[in-house]
């Protein structure tokens, strides 16, 4: 069974690789961003891809959605710190086979791989207790945004320019501007210069 692992944290990436290999599986590829992960999946068609959700370029959910739309046979396992209900629901919608919390990976990853290898879905046994309901409301506008849009908000708070955001996330400036426009529409902000920056700075203090 051939496996790809993608995570933008080097220590997590190497640790996951060591775990997987210690179980007797073959890790064919590793990478640290979503664009490389998707390209490698399309090129080598691994049996399983173990993905972090938060990665530059494309996040794990973006990749899962693309795999589903392309009808590729690679089975996706998400290894993540995210416990939000909206993210978990998206993962299920995109047909992921495994969803494991990083804090429990050492105890659950081997079992997950065994189940996914059989074609079964494996959801962390700890998730039921840890899952966070994050239904959008007046005090939680970020729940309306995708992970990619949230990453852009984080960089805007750091006062990064569109060009800098594009470079950090491996995107084109046009794509970043498109995300900015969608965020402004979703948040109902005025289409004025710096309106998004002002909103981001104000809400970062909450």
Automatic annotation (TrEMBL):
4-aspartylphosphate found at: 52
Gene Ontology molecular function, alphabetical: DNA binding
Swiss-Prot/TrEMBL GO biological process terms: phosphorelay signal transduction system; regulation of DNA-templated transcription
Domain HTH luxR-type per the UniProt entry, residue ranges: 138-204
Top-level taxon of origin: Bacteria
Domain Response regulatory: 2-117
UniProt name for this protein: Two-component system response regulator
Origin species: Flavobacterium chungangense
């Amino acid at each position: 069974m051939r496996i790809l692992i993608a995570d933008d944290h080097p220590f997590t990436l190497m640790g996951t690789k060591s775990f997987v290999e210690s179980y007797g599986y073959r890790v064919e590829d590793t990478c640290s961003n979503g664009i490389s992960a998707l390209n490698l999946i399309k090129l080598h068609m691994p049996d399983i891809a173990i993905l972090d959700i938060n990665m530059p370029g494309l996040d794990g959910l973006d990749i899962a959605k693309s795999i589903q739309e392309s009808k590729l046979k690679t089975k996706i396992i998400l290894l993540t710190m995210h416990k939000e209900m909206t993210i978990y629901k998206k993962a299920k919608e995109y047909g992921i086979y495994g969803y494991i919390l990083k804090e429990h990976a050492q105890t659950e990853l081997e079992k997950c791989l065994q189940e996914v290898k059989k074609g079964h879905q494996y959801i962390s046994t700890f998730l039921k207790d840890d899952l966070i309901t994050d239904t959008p409301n007046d005090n939680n506008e970020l729940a309306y945004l995708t992970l990619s849009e949230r990453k852009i908000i984080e960089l805007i708070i750091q006062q990064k320019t569109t060009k800098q955001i594009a470079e950090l996330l491996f995107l084109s400036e046009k794509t970043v501007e498109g995300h900015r426009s969608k965020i402004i529409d979703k948040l109902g902000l005025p289409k004025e210069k710096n309106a998004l920056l002002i909103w981001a700075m104000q809400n970062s203090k909450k």
